[in-house]
């Protein structure tokens, strides 16, 4: 957010009584005592609280806020769709967010807390029950993502909202429980948030960074979120043989070509060869939001600004900047690099360097994947999958109806899709037909490489198998992921 926007937000806050802009949600402080201490809430949620003049900017706000909400979901469990919808409602799509404070979180007696960088005094509206203007100290954040994380910490650390966390897989019910627990006095608050999630398809941001990965050499990695982000790895299919790879604190895992990469929750990347607890090398400063590694050892990182860098070899140095600050997703395999930019357009190229990108699609794509044989897969915003070999704008073949939620491409032409019901199908080769149903409607994430298929079911259990078909799955873990 620019300094101009911050000052504009402060002015909007000052005019809250007249414009009813910032009085859209609670201005709260983390409780000074135990987690179930009452929250300090200054709440003035009102009908029609969204300023009509800011609604035109909401799609642009969503494009930035969606990815920014995902680290908070990974860390605290608040669905990203809920966080973004609340931010739209409570900050007028970012127009009233001075100091990157999108939820009006106060400093209060607990000060700035562990995430904010400071406090600033601003006018706000409080209702108890009559509404009046007061001056209060509000937290200041280094980034939107940090504001969202503090929002997640607030909800997670207050026992009054504990019931909501029984519904992390059901964003609509999650926000109903938050509202019932007293988050807002507006009786229509949950309805408004749910309406925003539907209007802007915010549910698409709820997919957590992959908790499973499989490499071309058969190495499997699992991120145990129930152990606060600990990574385990092994070769071969079966329940046993897992080796603990890290202490807690990991956000995402990737493995391919014998290289393992992990993205820590603070944005630092580490990498190593081989399975074991030791040998990790720091690869970056804490600035990264996504990672990918190809079968040829190419490593890609996406920083929080949206810039992509790539290199081969493990170490802190050697990164080559690949793009301007335009990307929101990366994928690499078989020497091919793909990026999905913020408009929804896919670009691809061979080799490392700033130049050589070829536009592959119109601005319609939601997800990308590439196999080591060069098969590229895209999932458009409607839920339809297309695939092709080779780099260029043309040659895409429709692979599915508009029912898909996730895609994965393997090393041997294997394609996997996860539909919106949670059912997995797989096939080899490009074309609309030939899909084989692999599971019941129980799956959250998929991965394939080196002939191995991995799935993470809704209980957090990992299963794996070789070959295509409904049967043959082996349970690989307890419900830890």
From TrEMBL:
Signal peptide: 1-29
Keyword terms of this UniProt record: Hydrolase, Signal
Superkingdom assignment: Bacteria
InterPro entries referenced in this protein's UniProt entry, alphabetically: Glycosyl_Hydrolase_73, MGlyc_endo_b_GlcNAc-like_dom
Keyword match Transmembrane: no
Domain Mannosyl-glycoprotein endo-beta-N-acetylglucosamidase-like: 53-206
This protein's record includes keyword RNA-binding: no
Matches recorded under PANTHER family: PEPTIDOGLYCAN HYDROLASE FLGJ (PTHR33308:SF9)
Protein name: Mannosyl-glycoprotein endo-beta-N-acetylglucosamidase-like domain-containing protein
Organism the protein comes from: Amycolatopsis bullii
């Amino acid at each position: 957010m620019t300094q101009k926007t911050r000052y504009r937000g402060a002015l909007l806050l000052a005019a809250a009584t007249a414009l009813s802009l910032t009085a859209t949600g609670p201005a709260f402080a983390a409780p000074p005592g135990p987690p179930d201490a009452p929250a300090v809430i200054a709440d003035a949620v009102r009908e029609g609280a969204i300023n009509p003049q800011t609604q035109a900017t909401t799609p642009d706000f969503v494009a930035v806020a969606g990815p920014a909400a995902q680290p908070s979901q990974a860390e605290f469990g608040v669905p990203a769709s809920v966080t973004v919808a609340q931010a739209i409602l409570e900050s007028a799509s970012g127009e009233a967010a001075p100091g990157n404070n999108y939820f009006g979180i106060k400093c209060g007696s607990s000060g700035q807390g562990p995430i904010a960088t400071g406090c600033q005094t601003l006018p706000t509206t409080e209702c108890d029950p009559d509404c009046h203007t007061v001056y209060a100290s509000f937290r200041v954040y280094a980034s939107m993502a940090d504001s969202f994380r503090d929002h997640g910490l607030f909800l997670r650390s207050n026992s009054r909202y504990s019931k909501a966390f029984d519904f992390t897989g059901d964003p609509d019910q999650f926000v109903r429980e938050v509202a019932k627990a007293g988050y807002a006095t507006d009786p229509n608050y949950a309805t408004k948030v749910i309406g925003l999630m539907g209007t802007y398809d915010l549910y698409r941001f709820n997919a957590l960074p992959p908790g499973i990965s499989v490499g071309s050499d058969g190495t499997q990695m699992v991120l145990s979120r129930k152990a606060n982000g600990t990574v385990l790895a092994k070769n071969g299919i079966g329940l046993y043989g897992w080796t603990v790879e890290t202490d807690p604190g990991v956000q995402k895992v990737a493995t391919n070509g014998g290289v393992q990469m992990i993205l820590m929750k603070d944005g630092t990347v580490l990498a190593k060869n081989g399975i074991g607890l030791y040998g990790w090398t720091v690869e970056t400063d804490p600035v990264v939001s996504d990672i990918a590694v190809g079968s040829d050892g190419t490593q890609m990182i996406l920083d929080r600004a949206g810039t992509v860098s790539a290199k081969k070899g493990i170490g802190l140095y050697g990164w080559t900047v690949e793009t301007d600050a335009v990307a929101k997703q990366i994928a690499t395999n078989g020497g091919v690099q793909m990026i999905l930019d913020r408009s929804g357009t896919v670009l691809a190229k061979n080799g490392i360097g700033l130049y050589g990108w070829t536009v592959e699609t119109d601005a319609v794509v939601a997800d990308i994947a590439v196999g080591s044989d060069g098969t590229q897969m895209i999932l458009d915003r409607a839920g339809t999958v297309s695939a092709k070999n080779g780099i260029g704008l043309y040659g895409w073949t429709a692979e599915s109806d508009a029912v898909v939620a996730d895609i994965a491409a393997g090393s041997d032409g294997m394609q996997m899709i996860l539909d919106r019901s949670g059912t997995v199908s797989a096939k080899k080769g490009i074309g609309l037909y030939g899909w084989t149903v692999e599971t019941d409607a129980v799956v959250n994430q998929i991965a394939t490489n080196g002939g191995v298929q991995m799935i993470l079911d809704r209980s957090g259990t990992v299963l794996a198998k070789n070959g295509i078909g409904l049967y043959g799955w082996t349970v690989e873990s307890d419900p830890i992921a």
